[in-house]
Amino acid sequence: MDTRTGLPVVGMVGGGQLARMTHQAAIALGQSLRVLAQAPDDGAALVAADVQYGDHTDLAALRTFAKGCDVVTFDHEHVPTEHIRALAAEGVKLFPPADALLHAQDKQVMRERLGELGAPNPAWRPVAEPADLVAFGDAQGWPVVLKAARGGYDGRGVWLVDDAAQAAELATTLLAGGTRLIVEERVALRRELAVQVARSPFGQVAAYPVVETVQVGGICVEVLAPAPGLPEELAVAAQQLAIDLATALGVVGLLAVELFETPAGLVVNELAMRPHNSGHWTIEGARTSQFEQHLRAVLDYPMGDTSLAAPVVVMANVLGGQPGGISIDERLHHLFAAEPGAKVHLYGKQVRPGRKIGHVTVLGDDLADVRARAARAAHWLTEGTPA
Amino acid sequence: MDTRTGLPVVGMVGGGQLARMTHQAAIALGQSLRVLAQAPDDGAALVAADVQYGDHTDLAALRTFAKGCDVVTFDHEHVPTEHIRALAAEGVKLFPPADALLHAQDKQVMRERLGELGAPNPAWRPVAEPADLVAFGDAQGWPVVLKAARGGYDGRGVWLVDDAAQAAELATTLLAGGTRLIVEERVALRRELAVQVARSPFGQVAAYPVVETVQVGGICVEVLAPAPGLPEELAVAAQQLAIDLATALGVVGLLAVELFETPAGLVVNELAMRPHNSGHWTIEGARTSQFEQHLRAVLDYPMGDTSLAAPVVVMANVLGGQPGGISIDERLHHLFAAEPGAKVHLYGKQVRPGRKIGHVTVLGDDLADVRARAARAAHWLTEGTPA
């Protein structure tokens, strides 16, 4: 407990933009997020009062960090499962627990468990040797999607494999490098959806409206809330699936379920157990932001209202463009002049091509209008030009 | 400029809840507010990464603080005018400028200037000796309102004086103690209103909707946005008055104009040149919060959209009740269970009777419902009981 405020202390391992925005939400709850960052220029370290430095793979650093925290949670999935188990055995309260988080860390574990639970998987199999991949592709039809079981994000650790020759070469190289692999059919998708739920230790679960995520090159560029034209029964099915998974896996905190919408129904793509890019729209677009909700969940507070704050909400990611050109400060001037209603979130990062440096959110009534405004606003920050 | 982010550095003198919530807004703009606090348990010092310590009346401390800030602004009105002038003469950019801020620091200066500008003052006069007060009361009718020209807030520095005998005694004591005084007629008010505007160095001004502020014992307990049943022409007149004052006084940043609504029209009560309690509703209730707007103004960014985010917004202050009883943490549990849509803002303060320790905001469609929910939510935090 923080004796200055009488409130429990939440620690977050990782100092990126998710910790940065969680700290922002924590302030309203009377909290000051304790952050384990790697460097003073990490997004959260730039803005939080209570920062420690250390590596998230270093058990001793994690142990020191956890001292005095009432609960420890995570900005990313990269803390080794065995470290989380070791600290839990020492009495540290960590959410999500290791047994839940494992399903967001390891795609093979996730696929196996989803299969046991009867949740909608694509066709898939583990790839122990190149022949497994070739056989799967020959049976399912090429191309197929090869994935590293651990460590991938934003399109990294995912390869589209076109034929048997490419499969044999790629799998040989990756397996020789020690990368554990699974392969999935390339799903005939209409579009990608995502749904966030939050679950408390008590077991309360609250679901956000289902959103559409628009991806380019494996990176999410835009989120539309609610998912346009999604039939009510599919929306309810997606929310129910996420609630069931959160409960079955024992998640505490946020669970983001990324989904493919296919002609045959929904298929689970990925799981994340933390605030997620597909939920950034909730900061202004829902009555309770995913960051506040994650804090409420790990603190075992009752969940907040997940209703939409406007009929249409669009979030557009800001990916760093080429360095040079007009400064970020000048870009903000132009953007704010052009779009007084656009809500900007910058993560305190240096611009590098393709790097997520922030996002913008626009609320309104008309999808085409809101989407165009969000795209223009993001373009100002990305390129320093309106379009 | 912050070389890590390429963005200008904003410094705020004072580490209270206004700096705390300004830092929260700064995070989204890619900023990290630099705060000059007095103690490590100041509300903003608990949450901000970039904190210096020093007294706001110490010119040397202010000078050190201002080094490396692109612009300096204020959490309160207590920085001596001569210090602001001295720093400005040394090239520091301070907003609002001393010549503007003086009107929020000194009630006599404010009344004189409002008179020159033709803005609606109550009947008033300076009180240089007790006889001035007695004569004013005899002429205007008792009771009258005696005010310290400087330093009052939340009902402090204001005395309701019932008759000539009390007037003579009180004025004698206060004047002997060195308190400069003015007296004002006791206005026959229907209710109190407030309007916020923000003005940039460029001269852009943006006005928020007019709100009703409900006071108990000189302390604001509730803000209703928009002011219920306010005729459109009065609302426009109030916004125009605030815009004209911001422009005439050369305000940069937020200006809050507190007004009396009387049978004869609007009368100016007080001015504040910073984010203000009467604007806390804007955090969730307007598209741009007053804290973001203040930052945009002092950074000379174009102003954000001031539209309401819902038809009815009610903010209720949380005043510390008697110490003891259930903890703030437990109160939060009960409040969140009872009101999932209530937005809580705690300031990191120890509970003391009557001390503002936070506020809650509720959005909705029906005034009576929203107001009841906000009151219940505030009551949970104040007293640890629902009503």
From TrEMBL, chains A, B:
Enzyme Commission number, as recorded: 6.3.4.18
Keyword set, alphabetical order: ATP-binding, Ligase, Nucleotide-binding, Purine biosynthesis
Gene: purK
Residue ranges annotated for the ATP-grasp domain, each copy included: 111-299
Pfam families: ATP-grasp, PurK_C, RS_preATP-grasp-like
Gene Ontology molecular function terms on file: 5-(carboxyamino)imidazole ribonucleotide synthase activity; ATP binding; metal ion binding; phosphoribosylaminoimidazole carboxylase activity
Family, similarity comment: Belongs to the PurK/PurT family.
InterPro entries linked to this entry: ATP-grasp, ATP-grasp_carboxylate-amine, ATP_grasp_subdomain_1, PreATP-grasp_dom_sf, PurK, PurK_C, PurT/PurK_preATP-grasp, Rudment_hybrid_motif
Function, in words: Catalyzes the ATP-dependent conversion of 5-aminoimidazole ribonucleotide (AIR) and HCO(3)- to N5-carboxyaminoimidazole ribonucleotide (N5-CAIR). Catalyzes the ATP-dependent conversion of 5-aminoimidazole ribonucleotide (AIR) and HCO(3)(-) to N5-carboxyaminoimidazole ribonucleotide (N5-CAIR).
Lineage start: Bacteria, Bacillati, Actinomycetota, Actinomycetes, Micromonosporales
One cellular component (GO) term of this entry: cytosol
Assembly description: Homodimer.
Superkingdom as given in the UniProt entry: Bacteria
Pathway connected to this protein: Purine metabolism; IMP biosynthesis via de novo pathway; 5-amino-1-(5-phospho-D-ribosyl)imidazole-4-carboxylate from 5-amino-1-(5-phospho-D-ribosyl)imidazole (N5-CAIR route): step 1/2
The protein's name: N5-carboxyaminoimidazole ribonucleotide synthase
Ligand binding (ATP): 107, 147, 184-187, 192, 269-270
Keyword DNA-binding attached: no
Catalysed reactions, as listed in the record: 5-amino-1-(5-phospho-beta-D-ribosyl)imidazole + hydrogencarbonate + ATP = 5-carboxyamino-1-(5-phospho-D-ribosyl)imidazole + ADP + phosphate + 2 H(+)
GO biological process: 'de novo' IMP biosynthetic process
